[in-house]
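Hi everyone,

Forwarding the result from last night's run.
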Amino acid sequence: MVTKKPLSSSLFSSLIFFLLAISCHAFSIREASISGLQLAFKQKKLTSRQLVEFYVGEIHGLNSVLKGVIEINPDALYQADRADYERRVRAPGALVGLHGIPILLKDNIATKDKLNTTAGSFALLRSVVPRDAGVVAKLRKSGAIILGKASLSEWAAFRSLNAPNGFSARGGQGKNPYVLSDDPCGSSSGSAISVAANFVAVSLGTETDGSILCPSNANSVVGIKPTVGLTSRAGVIPISPRQDTVGPICRTVSDAVIVLDAIVGVDYNDGATQEASKYIPHGGYKQFLKPYGLKGKRLGIVRNPFLGFASKAESQAFEYHLQTLRQGGSVIVDHLEIANINAILNSTGSGEAIALLAEFKISLNTYLKDLVASPVRTLADVIAFNQKFADLEKINEFGQDIFLLAQATNGIGKVEKAALINLEKLTRDGFQKLMRYYKLDALVTPGAGFAPVLAIGGFPGINVPAGYDDKGVPFGINFGGLKGTEPKLIQIAFGFEQATKIRKPPTFKA
């Protein structure tokens, strides 16, 4: 639920924005990038307090329809005032990066403050986390303002196969800000909705299989799904340590890269970050925001089955965008095939579902046990809570079949080990072999249907807005690569974005 604010405060926020808009040095907060906001700070056209007040005003004005935000941080204005003070006294780090910039976090990312961390479920309301999530600690160090928690598909879409994308008991049904009746996708739906609708400039989402790439694709925003381990998962309500990753959702590639730079790195509470840290380039990722990033890149095109998932408008746009990529200097290697692609995309047949169910029970029980205080301590407790409080946990009408299947597992046994071996084989003989044989820098696909290929191997991907159909429904283009290839993917995504500049603000069509 969003914390209520007095009407006078909301009017005050609107007045501030109005005065800014009519000033002789007008600056529009809406659609502003991080660099634009930092420049406005520097030129004293804007303060972090004014920025927070504007975003809170927008949330109160539209969130009752869009349901992109679950909770606003009651300390956000205090953090804004501190950022403004640090800017005035020229504290180290002020006026760069995320300093003084509000950010929304998906409600499965823990914050050790007055905010709840619930995965959208009443079962975890008023639970107490032991510490900030690793990525949150890095955000605070960068000077970012934690504005609140974004809505999501409850339990990161790992509770029920029947629940709609973007729905949770605490948050309600998230809506696509471009066409309200269209699917916002999940599970990081609120993070994408909020950025698209200008509730905030930047947000964090999480992905196990498609949960950053799909909502970014559906809501016309940029989403980066990092290599697994590049960003810490410590303090994130888990599904699978083998596939979970945390990444930025923003309106531009450059903003997403600034957030990525802030959250990558070693966290001793997540062992995977030590191994993945070898991929982090000296000097960070911002250096790869090059206008000619497409030049010389070898880009693979797998038409079957991904173009079959696309609408007519998406297919036509994709063909047009291939010409854009060529004109930018990329080498297009077309009509490629990923071995056993149908098996990879079938989570039951591939073994992904079997592995995830067992991993979820183990990792969730560990997370719940580590909480300082909680109404539930095991997956079994969560299932019992949902049964007992059916009227409160409104998602009960969709059931909890995934929970029940996960609860029936008993660790990583023979069946699970066989599934994991099969996933490794499918990855090795499919995506990895294709990328290496053709010496590709990235694979390019329309939409987010490619997500499972990246998910089972822990590979990175970036979604960039690519167009809108005749009803105004957005769609994107995805660039995926091997582990640690974020620098190349950023060059490609930024080059494509700058060549097309196709994204436009939402229309809020019914």
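Residues 414-437 form the longest helix (24 residues).

Cheers,
N.
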